[in-house]
Fold each of these.
Amino acid sequence: MEDTIAAISTALGVGAISIIRVSGNEAIEIVNKIFDHDLLNVESHTIHYGHIIENNEIIDEVLVSVMRSPRTFTYEDTVEINTHGGIATTNKVLELLILNGARMAEPGEFTKRAFLNGRIDLVEAEGIMNLIEAKSDVSRKLALKQVNGVVSNNIRNLREKIMKLIANIAVNIDYPEYEDILEVTTKEVEEEIIYIESKLNAILSQSNNTSLVLEGLKTVILGRPNVGKSSILNMLLNEEKAIVTDIAGTTRDIVEGTLNLNGVYLKLLDTAGVHEASDKVEEIGINKSLNLIKEADLILLVLDNNSELTDEDKKLLDLTKDKNRIIIVNKIDLDKKLDLEEENVIYISALNKTGLENLRKKIVEMFNLDSINTDMNMFVNANDIAKIKKCLNIIKKIKENIKNIEIDMIDIDLREINDILGSIIGESYDEEILDTVFKNFCLGK
């Protein structure tokens, strides 16, 4: 981290302002080379008006913020240049910074430096990315708890308990002649390990729900042509997103929309009707529809109340039987001809806009969305969830063997749990873990 990095921190495009961030030991010196006022001796956390200059030519009128180490996000000298928004101007200023000694930052490198310099831990770093990508107020509040260290502190508290147990076991090992110490230590281990297990189980349970909040539900609306899929999409979104006609096969490609349901983001995908294709284009659309079944978190399978069950209907019922599925029987305003014996069935009329509230309630019930609240812990990272599960497996082994093995063997298991929890917050890590955490960050963050 000896070099100085630079990147555009705002979205690239036309706008009122763009911000270019520079961080590193030479940040102030590099910006000073292209700014028409002396920045070398200015006080920290001050803003300066002036111009970016190249060969005595004014490139842009800017505001430059100077923040000296260690009171910065990265704990390094940091300069932020506020330019007029626009691709040409912003890129030109970035180009001058690189020509004068800065290096283009990698995605997430500013946050990575904040972690490596001890400013934040890994959970807080992931919280920053979750905050940037938050799609609802609930996800924003949960991500903010990560950023503020609430989640990390819960892990640290568990590690403190484990270290206390390890210390008590050490006393037993050092003074084996005192049998009462052994008895007290074993009893305390049993009690504390049950407590730690309950906390980890709570984190695991909440993680499954909070992953829905952050990642959302990929929801595929599926069915044969003309059963009302596009009408249902439009009804859910309360807008005319998809074209609706009485001509079979109107939808030939995926039509997308988003819905916020109890703070959970639903990505709705209206698909081409599944049937025997009449041309190549329609065949491609149908294949896309079928492939989405594998990726979907939720299938809304639409059937026609005014038609008997067809071979295409039966095929789709079979293909989706092992998925999270809600069957929607549409067109209840028409005569009933459909004979169906299935669970999770909602009856609606997209034409008359009836039954929508029942569908919403069914989705909430299926995914326990009512239980989601901002008091939960968050470990939506699949790797972190796997680590929590590994800790629980070790605890299970301790509980099964605590009466039959030497206390120093339990010490080994407790140290492993402690190390695993430490790796979640980054108190122990390797480069591969860091690459996984920061690779999905945007440039300039």
Note: The first strand starts at residue 5 and ends at 8.
Amino acid sequence: MPQIIDGKAISAQIKDEVKEQVAALSEQGKKVCLAVIQVGNDPASSVYVGNKKKACAYVGIESLAYELAEETTQEELLSLIGELNAKNEVNGILVQLPLPKHIDEDAVIRAIAPKKDVDGFHPQSVGALCIGQPGFVSCTPAGIIQLLKRSGIEIAGKECVVVGRSNIVGKPMALLLLRENGTVTVAHSRTRNLKEVTKRADILVVAVGKPRMITRDYVKEGAVVIDVGIHRNENNKLCGDVDYEDVAPVCSAITPVPGGVGPMTIAMLMYNCANAGEGNGL
């Protein structure tokens, strides 16, 4: 039986550590405050925003909610971000993605001050990660590193394969594994002989966005498999990019969906917010 990597338990540990950090800051007279902006009322986004508010309440971070109408213009949104950048009492700014089609996401991400970029999406944050400088790291990949470390899984010297090359998960994931001294290959939908590439992996991170695409044919015996995907199957049950039932018997450790990577994203957002409150982009 593989080790089931429990994202719920590990995220709870991290949130408890953040709670202590926020309490210590409070004793020094420092408050931590996150501003969350949602444009429109996409149901999935509303759920995510609600979860972020609950996490803030749990760890003691003040949250400011800005729920804007779907027809809000890009200029109005950029103006609000400018105001929040200028407010000393706001430590972190998060704009819930996706945005309505008439708003340029890239322009919005660039408008957030890097020292308040707790999502880790600003080009300055990404550039800092590339060259090993301090900066905020995208929450999902940062959470995956914590899952591995806190589950006793060594990264240094391991063959790591990341399937997916998005700016939010795939690329920063590869850089973080490299930072931990893994030997990293980035694969994607156009990779030739994908099964041969993924079968080399000691640690396989899958963020390809296709339900249950990765079967045991893609996985080396004894590999660690991290599933970033989240979908609903034909029975409306949550599933990932990995066919869990098929893959679990051949790997040494695996993340379930739900309860694996998902809870870590919000835990690491809280971690980033607390560090913004300390004045560190770490």
Note: The radius of gyration is 19 Å.
